[in-house]
Model the fold of this input.
Amino acid sequence: MTEYKIALVGFGGVNRGLAQLIAERNQSWRKELGLSLKIVGVTDLFLGSIMARDGLDAAELAKLPSSKGAFAQLPGGSAEAFNETIIKQSGADIIAEATFTNPVDGEPATTFCRWALEGGKHVVTTNKGPIALHADELKALAKRNGVCFEYEGSVMSGTPVIRMARETLPGAVITGFEGILNGTSNYVLTRMEEGLSFADAVRKAQELGYAEADPTADVEGHDVRLKVVILANELLDAKLTVNDVNCSGITSLSPADIERAQQSGERWKLIGSATRNAAGAVSASVEARLLDNSHPLAGISGATNAVSFNTELLGAVTVSGPGAGRIETAFALLSDIVAIHKSVSKK
Ligand SMILES: NC(=O)C1=CN([C@@H]2O[C@H](COP(=O)(O)OP(=O)(O)OC[C@H]3O[C@@H](n4cnc5c(N)ncnc54)[C@H](O)[C@@H]3O)[C@@H](O)[C@H]2O)C=CC1
Ligand SMILES: N[C@@H](CC=O)C(=O)O
Done:
């Protein structure tokens, strides 16, 4: 049994979900997974920070009020976010990075990942910015420092997609994919079909922990664009940048559009897709498409996501599951930690 010391950077829905899972399940993980986690530091722009090399009480952390500077209420805590100190000096073996996704330059999350990897710490992250914009650099940095850099939750939350395709589809030859890759926008479309207004549906998605800090990223397709870049580069060996992907969202769809579609046996879905042509070039897009109800993606509703990989040997292989959610995405971090444990145990 191995105990990993972990520091949490960003303590919003996802890392708080991880603290909750640690509080509830650490004992069973010892037996089931051969590992346990000890939280040695937490830092958050809004809540402040806390560090304890002997370990913090995960249940107490998970219950911390979401008020400005709340860590100052705990013994040894501070209202200031000492990100660099927590990453470099908490003694953590693993850094769980879950701050805001910045779709423009991936910062400051990319710097947090760099600090950790350069210091010989494994990184698990659900943040799409560093992966869509700086994956090659960060993977190379991890390799040079003999540590792992894992990011399963950056696409489709806790639903296994990246690792599943990487580990089980080699040889099947993936030629492209299309999918519903944003929980918030799919939830909004589903709720609008039930008669809710766009604004109320977005508000509900925020309450449920699905939406980005700025939900424009969800409904304008920018979040899906990052995920399309990540999947295309990981699985189609593309070298796409965000600017290579034409992108539009669901904001121009009116309640009348949604109703008209329903009356003609169709549904609007926000689809991210990429295809490799015979010459090897990969083209990708994000757009709202009108799907016939018989289309395999038409029945995917709420915050559920699905992606269909087109393969030469198997035809379409479709994976479906949660695309957002606090605990669901915290599970993605756990799956990354399990992957690290397997890799470390092999050495
Ligand atoms: N919530 C979800 O369903 C999913 C979220 N993600 C990604 O995971 C990450 C975290 O998501 P949530 O926890 O839902 O977001 P959140 O908005 O609930 O929490 C993010 C936290 O990061 C903190 N933060 C922001 N900038 C910081 C900085 N410079 N230094 C320290 N702390 C900082 C904020 O104060 C906030 O508490 C985001 O990048 C998101 O895109 C990925 C998949 C699913
Ligand atoms: N805001 C995103 C969260 C996961 O990446 C979504 O709604 O899918």
Summary: Residues 110 and 130 are 5 Å apart (CA to CA). Residues 2-157+327-346 form a domain with the Rossmann fold fold (CATH 3.40.50.720). The radius of gyration is 20 Å. The chain has a mean pLDDT of 98.
